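INFO batch 0412 | record 1 of 1 | parsing
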Amino acid sequence: MTKHDLSLFSAVQSAEAIQNGRISSEALVEACLKRIEETDSVIRAWAYLDAGVALDQAREMDRIRKAGRATGPLHGVPVGLKDIVDTNDMPTQRGTTIFSGRRSETDARLVEHLREAGAVIMGKTKTTEFAFMHPTDTTNPFNSTRTPGGSSSGSAAAVAARHVPLAIGTQTGGSVIRPASFCGVYGFKPTQGTISRTGVFRTSVSLDQVGGFANSLEDIALLTDVISGYDQSDPASFARPRAKMLEGAQAEVPVEPNIAWLDFPFDDRLDADTVEGLNAVIDGLRGQVERFSASPQLSDLINVHKTIYDYEIRQNMAETSENHWLAISTEMQSAINRGAEISVTQYEDALVVMASARSFFTEYFNDFDAILAPSAKGEAVPLNAGHTGDSVFCLAWTLAGLPCLTLPLLVGQNDLPIGVQLIGAVEEDDRLLRTASWVQRSLNAQEQQGE
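INFO prediction complete | emitting tokens
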């Protein structure tokens, strides 16, 4: 085995091999740095990367292991952070020159969890401006003329390119699920409040949620277990035990799960190859998927999401927009202007609908283990489209704070990845991951029988 091959290890494999002394963290980080050196001039996934700092962390993790001291579940494993997650030893620039060189005095809460687990913080991955809509220059690892999605552009691309086995992203609309779909990796946004947002740049207190990227279901489950936890300073965080994600991903279903598909009016935005692929998935699940038409109230949730997002992003951008208006993109300026036109009454009404939607889905999942849905419209859109893709297929689920997972199951007409989304019940993320594992096994069995 060459050192370069280590970059193909999963996070679960890497952690086990490091803890058993079969490989060193230093060798793993060196392999990842080599992969970055070979490919990042085209992919441009990284906003900040210091090889020396990464290797120093790896050597320290190796020293700790050799000394016989305690090791964590991600001991010596490199992780990328979206460039809106604060660290005290690296800049966090939020995808804008306005915050060029900005450094935080403290780590984000999730970074504290990563360090406690023994992870190597590799660097900061590129994001769209203020984690909103204006694209960065990151390209899709499958095709450099295509977008990796947004706003977690660099995180998804870095994992897909095997720069790191794991990376952190955030989702306010569809910013974990869509990039993962475009880049052919696993993307998971757990139940809102599972992961602390303290130290993560805020765009919407009601909607911002943290998630991650990996190349296997077990890896994304392990990452989520590590960074989960109660944080009394985050208003969305809940003071209860969290679902055990890795256990869920590794569990067998007690009975074949019941899965729902909801037809929405905006499904006509789906590309033809996406529709064909999703129908094949539904057929492959042997009658376990039941189709329904979404009610007008459910369909209107995308407009409720927009009202809340625009109103709150204007509030959170107030100081920056006042001092740096001309340095802000037209996309952000438009959102701020839209937010100014939303009355307090309209905003409060939207919050009431959001709460109602969350109550509705709590009841809905009494009958279903998961909802099956598109992750995105189709393959990654061209870079010259000037945007990072359509998030409409994620908005309702994000609004409701539901756990969302995309599986890299389909390939489009241009041989680019297309994800399939599964949505689960609040605080039953382990059940969702267990269902996802069943879905993968069932489809693989169907494919093998077809051969």
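INFO post-check: The first helix runs from residue 11 to 19.
INFO record closed
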